[in-house]
């Protein structure tokens, strides 16, 4: 039971990282990034290619791949996302949908649909005694890193000047601009950062999940449900819901395996009935 | 009277009907049927997107589950195919009630995310419920009985199926041109005012959602009969995306534009498949991006602007 819950936390770590990136981008730009799952997939493939072709190990890939994809994200924002931003947000959703199709099928064309192997970093090969049970060291590492990253983003958002600007721009963009803060300057880096978070999650996923072109697409739709559960436009809610959904799915997988995949959507339906704005969302988002 | 109002110009109506009737002479007949089914599907999505302002990114749930329902009815009951197709459409309408009831609580981009999530749920259910849906193998061997008439030739089956598509398109057009449709447009343009005028906008949204699902189901059911099988592809998110893509390519809010979008995309996919190119997402995704970036009015929307000038 406890071990199941722990499995859930590890699974939730990925939901949380992806939901965090989505929420940060949505808050700042009002864009729901459908390609988020594709960037996650590219993160995993990036680390695979680095190791396979150049022998670059996991510890280098972990910072390198997110930085490269984050920079690519800023270019994407500058060239396209920005152009569509003044229009109905649906257009950017559709744009990133098209982008996701392209990225996914390009990778599929190059590597096929079969899963590529990626070994665990040797330092984390064993297991750790957690007191009540032994647990694979790598999974513990993933959970710890994810908690640290989510915590760090939280601190940055609430305790620093940059975070204040981002939050202010999220809540009241016009007012923030009227106070003399250049909101537009922060849009591009925030988008790049969100993409980097997705890539980071992808690199973390490579040693423990199947690296294949479709790994991001299905996951991102579940993450959409997570974001709806957590609360529309709420960064904290997205992360909390990420971990919570992870635990619920793992327990569901244990007690009612046939429900494991649908459980998160049933949860979403319940939240929509009870609190349409999500657990931590604001009603004005409706 | 009705004819002269249809599509604004009777000439266009005649051209459209002639095109629909001659289609299997110019394209490979099974592809012609695909185009017709997708055209109805696109019109159903446009009913929500173009006329109510709701982007459903989960209509694969209705298209695909109607395909399964139609197939199951045809396989297990041996009833003529029109009964199976209508049964499939009815199944979609019933499924749309809970999904629509929950989804319309959210607006804009959140509506898109929630419908997408529900469709994914339907996909997982279909994938897991192997005894009924056949899982990854799909539901195979769907017959096309019609009182003993031999419809095995796709060329003839196209004409057997076309009346359903035309009836579905007519219903969509009637909805748009009715007082009910006017209320939908007012909800799209200014839902606060529509509410202030005393319209129960949630009830309107739910009703049009269910109608749209039923029309999608009609298309999906006929598609399943035409192919003789129903597969997981039908409920997958790419199917929802493809329908939206056809609407945008043809022109949002034009109703008929979706048919042009359907013809272009289905024909393109067929040619790519014939050429052995499997990763169609590279091409269709690129087209989608270009359309969204520089051609947002779509084919029909652009043509209409030029005609009215």
From TrEMBL, chain A:
<dbReference type="InterPro" id="IPR052157">
    <property type="entry name" value="BCAA_transport_permease"/>
</dbReference>
<feature type="transmembrane region" description="Helical">
    <location>
        <begin position="56"/>
        <end position="77"/>
    </location>
</feature>
<feature type="transmembrane region" description="Helical">
    <location>
        <begin position="137"/>
        <end position="157"/>
    </location>
</feature>
<dbReference type="GO" id="GO:0005886">
    <property type="term" value="C:plasma membrane"/>
</dbReference>
<keyword id="KW-0812">Transmembrane</keyword>
<dbReference type="GO" id="GO:0006865">
    <property type="term" value="P:amino acid transport"/>
</dbReference>
<dbReference type="InterPro" id="IPR001851">
    <property type="entry name" value="ABC_transp_permease"/>
</dbReference>
<keyword id="KW-0813">Transport</keyword>
<protein>
    <submittedName>
        <fullName>Branched-chain amino acid ABC transporter permease</fullName>
    </submittedName>
</protein>
<feature type="transmembrane region" description="Helical">
    <location>
        <begin position="219"/>
        <end position="247"/>
    </location>
</feature>
<feature type="transmembrane region" description="Helical">
    <location>
        <begin position="186"/>
        <end position="207"/>
    </location>
</feature>
<feature type="transmembrane region" description="Helical">
    <location>
        <begin position="254"/>
        <end position="274"/>
    </location>
</feature>
<keyword id="KW-0472">Membrane</keyword>
<feature type="transmembrane region" description="Helical">
    <location>
        <begin position="12"/>
        <end position="36"/>
    </location>
</feature>
<keyword id="KW-1133">Transmembrane helix</keyword>
<dbReference type="Pfam" id="PF02653">
    <property type="entry name" value="BPD_transp_2"/>
</dbReference>
<keyword id="KW-0029">Amino-acid transport</keyword>
<keyword id="KW-1003">Cell membrane</keyword>
<comment type="similarity">
    <text>Belongs to the binding-protein-dependent transport system permease family. LivHM subfamily.</text>
</comment>
<dbReference type="GO" id="GO:0022857">
    <property type="term" value="F:transmembrane transporter activity"/>
</dbReference>
<feature type="transmembrane region" description="Helical">
    <location>
        <begin position="89"/>
        <end position="107"/>
    </location>
</feature>
């Amino acid at each position: 039971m406890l071990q199941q819950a722990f499995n859930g936390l590890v699974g939730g770590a990925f939901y949380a990282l992806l939901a965090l990136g989505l929420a940060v981008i949505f808050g700042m730009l009002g864009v729901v990034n459908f390609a988020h799952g594709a960037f996650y997939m590219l993160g995993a493939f990036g680390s695979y290619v680095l190791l396979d072709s150049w022998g670059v190990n996991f510890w280098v890939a972990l910072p390198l791949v997110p930085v490269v994809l984050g920079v690519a994200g800023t270019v994407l924002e500058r060239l396209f996302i920005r152009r569509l931003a003044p229009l109905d947000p649906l257009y950017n959703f559709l744009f990133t949908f098209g982008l996701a199709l392209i990225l996914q099928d390009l990778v599929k064309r190059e590597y096929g649909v079969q899963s590529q192997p990626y070994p665990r970093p040797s330092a984390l090969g064993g297991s750790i005694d957690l007191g009540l049970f032994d647990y694979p060291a790598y999974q513990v590492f993933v959970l710890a890193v994810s908690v640290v990253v989510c915590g760090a983003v939280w601190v940055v958002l609430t305790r620093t000047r940059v975070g204040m600007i981002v939050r202010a721009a999220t809540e009241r963009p016009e007012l923030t601009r009227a106070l003399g803060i250049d909101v537009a300057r922060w849009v591009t880096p925030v988008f790049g950062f969100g993409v980097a978070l997705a890539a980071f999650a992808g690199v973390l996923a490579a040693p423990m999940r199947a690296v294949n072109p479709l790994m991001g697409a299905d996951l991102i739709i579940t993450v959409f449900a997570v974001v709806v559960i957590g609360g529309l436009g709420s960064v904290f809610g997205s992360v909390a819901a990420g971990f919570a959904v992870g635990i619920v799915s793992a327990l569901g997988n244990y007690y009612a395996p046939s429900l494991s995949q649908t459980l998160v959507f049933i949860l979403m339906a319940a939240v929509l009935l009870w609190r349409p704005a999500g657990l931590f969302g604001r009603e004005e988002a409706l | 009277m009705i004819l002269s109002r249809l599509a604004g110009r009777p000439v266009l109506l005649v051209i459209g009907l002639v095109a629909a009737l001659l289609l299997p002479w110019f394209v490979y007949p099974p592809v012609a049927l695909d185009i017709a089914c997708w055209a109805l599907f696109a019109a159903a999505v446009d009913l929500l997107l173009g006329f109510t302002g709701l982007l459903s990114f989960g209509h694969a749930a209705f298209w695909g589950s109607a395909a399964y329902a139609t197939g199951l009815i045809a396989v297990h009951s041996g009833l003529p195919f029109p009964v199976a197709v209508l049964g499939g459409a009815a199944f979609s309408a019933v499924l749309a009630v809970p999904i629509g009831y929950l989804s319309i609580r959210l607006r804009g981009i959140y509506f898109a995310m929630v419908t997408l999530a529900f469709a994914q749920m339907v996909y997982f259910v279909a994938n897991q419920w192997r005894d009924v849906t056949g899982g990854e193998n799909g539901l195979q061997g769907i017959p096309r009985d019609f009182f003993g008439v031999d419809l095995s030739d796709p060329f003839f089956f196209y004409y057997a199926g076309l009346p359903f598509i035309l009836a579905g398109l007519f219903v969509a057009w009637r909805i748009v041109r009715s007082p009910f449709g006017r209320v939908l447009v007012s909800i799209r343009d200014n839902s606060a005012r529509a509410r202030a005028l005393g319209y129960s906008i949630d009830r309107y949204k739910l009703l049009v959602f269910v109608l749209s699902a039923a029309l999608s189901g009609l298309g999906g059911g006929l598609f399943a009969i035409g192919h003789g099988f129903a597969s997981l592809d039908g409920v997958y998110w790419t199917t929802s995306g493809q329908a939206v893509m056809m609407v945008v390519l043809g022109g949002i809010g034009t109703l008929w534009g979706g048919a042009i979008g359907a013809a272009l995309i289905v024909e393109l996919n067929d040619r790519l498949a014939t050429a052995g190119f499997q990763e169609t997402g590279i091409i269709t995704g690129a087209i989608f991006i270009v359309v969204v970036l520089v051609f947002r009015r779509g084919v029909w929307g652009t043509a209409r602007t030029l005609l009215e000038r």
